[in-house]
Amino acid sequence: MTAETVAAPAIDPTFDTIWDELVWRGLIHVSTDQDALRELLAGPPIVYYCGFDPTAPSLHLGNLVQLLTMRRLQLAGHRPLGLVGGSTGLIGDPRPTAERTLNTPETVAEWVMKLRAQVERFLDFEGDNAARIVNNLDWTAPLSAIDFLREIGKHFRVGTMLKKDAVSARLNSDAGISYTEFSYQILQGLDYLELYRQYGCLLQTGGSDQWGNLTSGVDLIHRVEGVSAHAIGTPLITNSDGTKFGKSEGNAIWLDAEMCSPYAMYQFWLNTDDADVIARLKVFTFLGRAEIEEYERLVAAEPFRRAAQKRLALEVTTTVHGPEATAAAIDASEALFGKGDLASLDAETLAAALRELPHASVAAGTPVVQALVETGLVSSASEARRAISQGGVTLDGDKVGSDEATVAGTLPGGVSVLRRGKKALAGLFVA
């Protein structure tokens, strides 16, 4: 399978409405009136939005759920607004445990531009339902504190605000909550009201952990304008064993290639558990129902082939990073595990792949025995010599025949690959 076989973004025609497809894909965890939403989305095009706060220089896999949901709604004919929160990003929505560190306005402005570029990659800006990017700093910056309190704040009741999950969790913690973060839900409500007034926006999507913030806008529009607006909360993606999804050794899987390489992303999806892979195909790819059901059959009948995981890794990595980067990641994966030529890989992809393995920086001429110990492939020099004498060590694909062999860094970018046995690999960055 090659990168050219990825599914083109499309809605599945076997569903009566886009609502039915979203439900089948497991994307509706909570929502306003479901019957009304189904009818609304089956009718003439509506304007909808999703917000992304620049609290980091990149979006991550949790945001990818929202981006792909936005794209599905756009493919069904609806008109997306991608909101990058230049003002809400200066505050940050309340976390369950502690206050966020406030970033400088300059940092937030820089991150706004980065996130805007990422959001733009997933939406179509041509045609009758072309996407539009908006920044909530445009309408919050001109507001005085008095105007904000008189025109917006008066519509919120403190008792209701205290009941929001994120707020109540913080109130019951040692950290408490500042008025700044307590006010976040008012700002998000203002966003929805402003987008309704400017563009007729009638739907907001977001993660279910944002439900209190989503409904603050729904309630505000109803109270101020007398209009029924809607919200969809997608489920928080977790693994079947209950662990948090999207974390790799404590690090988020970012959409920025400099923060998470295409190789690392490809490997992340390739390592998906059998119990999770079908749900991931539904949420993160544009494969249709028939194809996904076939992969479900293959997982049950031939799990050792990992066909579903390979297709998932191909689809998502291509969606995020493009076909060329994905093909390079696949080539690197195969070459590292003995199915390709290491010397044919480009230096950047090879280096990214080696950083995902146990690795060490060594000087040219370092004995292989020492390199085996420094990378952790063996626990001692004597164990290294024994592995070499038994013919179980290779360097850059060639068997090491002597414990006097040294590292040269002959692969692209001045690196080397050590292997002990069939599966234990390590990278060497040679100076």
UniProtKB/TrEMBL annotation:
Intracellular or extracellular location(s): Cytoplasm
GO biological process, one term: tyrosyl-tRNA aminoacylation
Residues binding ATP: K247
A Pfam family this chain is assigned to: tRNA-synt_1b
Superkingdom in the source lineage: Bacteria
Motif 'KMSKS' region per record, residues: 244-248
Protein name: Tyrosine--tRNA ligase
Source species of the chain: Microbacterium paludicola
Gene: tyrS
